[in-house]
Amino acid sequence: MPSDSLYPVVGLIVGLIVGLTGVGGGSLMTPALVFLFKIPVDIAVGTDLLFASLTKIAGVTAHSARGNVHWGIVMRLGAGSLPASIATIFLMSQLKAHGKPLDGIVLPLLGISLVVTAGAVLLRKRIIRAGGKLFGLSEQVSNLLAVLVGIVLGVTVTLTSVGAGAIGVAALMLLYPKLRGAEVVGSDLAHAIPLVTIAGLGHLQLGHIDYHLLLGLLLGSVPGIYIGSTVSSRLPEVIMRRILACVLLVIGIACVVGG
Questions:
Q1: Distance between CA 89 and CA 129 in Å, rounded?
Q2: Measuring CA to CA, which of 37, 97, 101, 230 is 20 to 30 A from 126?
Q3: Contact criterion met (CB below 8 Å) for 46 and 206
Q4: Are 77 and 146 in contact (CB under 8 A)?
Q5: How far is it, in rounded angstroms, from Cα 48 to Cα 21?
Q6: Inter-helix orientation angle 181-205/71-97, to 10°
Q7: E strand or H helix that includes residue 247
C-alpha cells in the first residue's frame, strides 16, 4: 500500500477532475486505488462509498435549496436501489463467510460500469436529445422503469462504487426528458446519498473501510473540487469530457480483461 502522505494527493487529483467535468469521483477513485496503489478491491470500494456519501451532502443541499430535486423520482429510484443494496451486502457477507473471493465478480463488473460511464459521458448531448423521442414513454411506464433502474444501480454501486453519477444521470435523461438539466443532476445526487451511505455502512460492517485512506482522500478532495469548479469555466468542457471518457474506457476494458 502507498504511504499515507499520498492519499491526499489522490483525493486532490480526483477532486480536480470532478470539479472540472462534473463526473462522479467513484468512476476514477476506485480504479486509481486498485490499479495504481494496489489497494484490495473490497477496501477500495468500501472506502470510496463512505467518501462519496460525505462529499455529496453539500451538493445536494445546494440543489435542494434551489428546488432542483424531484423527490418523487428520488423515492422511486430508492425503492429499487436501497433494498437491492442491502441484498447485495448480504450476498457479499455470505460469500466472504464461505471464503470466496469477490475480485472475480467485482473487477469485471467494475469494468463494464466504467465502459457504460464512458459512453454516458461521451454521448451526453445525444442522450438529452434522444430523451422523449427515443421511447415516447408514458409517465407510468417511466416511473416503473425508474424503480428497475434503481435496482440495477443498487447492485452496481454496492459492488463497484461506480454508477450513481453518470449512469444515473443518463437514465433519468431518457426516462424524464422534460426535466431541466439541474433537476436531473439534483435528483440523481439526492438519490445517490442514501444509496452510497447504506452501501458504505454495509462495507463498514464487512470490515472494508480504511480510515486513514478515507481521511486522506477527504483532505485532498475538498480543495480539489473547489479549485476544479473555479477554473472549469476557463477550459473547454467538451475536450475535458472526451479525454476523461477515453481514460474510463481504457480502464474499463482493462478491468474486464484482467477480471
A1: 36
A2: 230
A3: yes
A4: yes
A5: 19
A6: 20
A7: helix 237-258
